[in-house]
Every structure is written in structure tokens, then in C-alpha cells.
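Sequence, please.
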């Protein structure tokens, strides 16, 4: 799940949110406030499965979100393999 803050859209995160919304592989939600006001004011950010992902630019945020998703998938696959091996 990728969560975006409507208050953070002044950084241009709406463009990134729209990119993810166009892909059915991602669950995207927009909230009026995510309660991370300090981060929201300073940088473009989103939550990926509850973890704050931020960057200095929206393009960097897009890449960081993709990396976070890839890492979560790799972690899940490793855990599944570990459980299968038990």
C-alpha cells in the first residue's frame, strides 16, 4: 500500500501518485493528512506499507518508492523460503 498526503501535493507528489494509480499492481490511497507534518513540510514523501519514504525531489521519491517495494518483495520471498525450508 502506498499512501500519499494531500497536504504534501505542493511538492508535486500528485504526479507520482497518479503514476502509481495507473498501475493495478499498486494499492494507492490519498489522505488529507498522514500526521507527518515535519516531513510533509520539508520534502516530498509517501508511506509504503507504513514506512516513511522521502526524497529531495519527486523523481527521486518515485525511485525510492520503487526500491522500497522491491525490498519488501525480496524480504517476503526470503521469509517464505525460510519458512518453506523449516
Amino acid at each position: 500500500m502506498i499512501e500519499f498526503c494531500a497536504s504534501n501535493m505542493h511538492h508535486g507528489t500528485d504526479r507520482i501518485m497518479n503514476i502509481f494509480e495507473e498501475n493495478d499492481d499498486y494499492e494507492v490511497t490519498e489522505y488529507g493528512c498522514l500526521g507527518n507534518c515535519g516531513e510533509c513540510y520539508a520534502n516530498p514523501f509517501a508511506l509504503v506499507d507504513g514506512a516513511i519514504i522521502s526524497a529531495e525531489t519527486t523523481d527521486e521519491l518515485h525511485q525510492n518508492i520503487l526500491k522500497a517495494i522491491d525490498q519488501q518483495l525480496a524480504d517476503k520471498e526470503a521469509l517464505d523460503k525460510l519458512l518453506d525450508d523449516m
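Residues 58-85 form the longest helix (28 residues).
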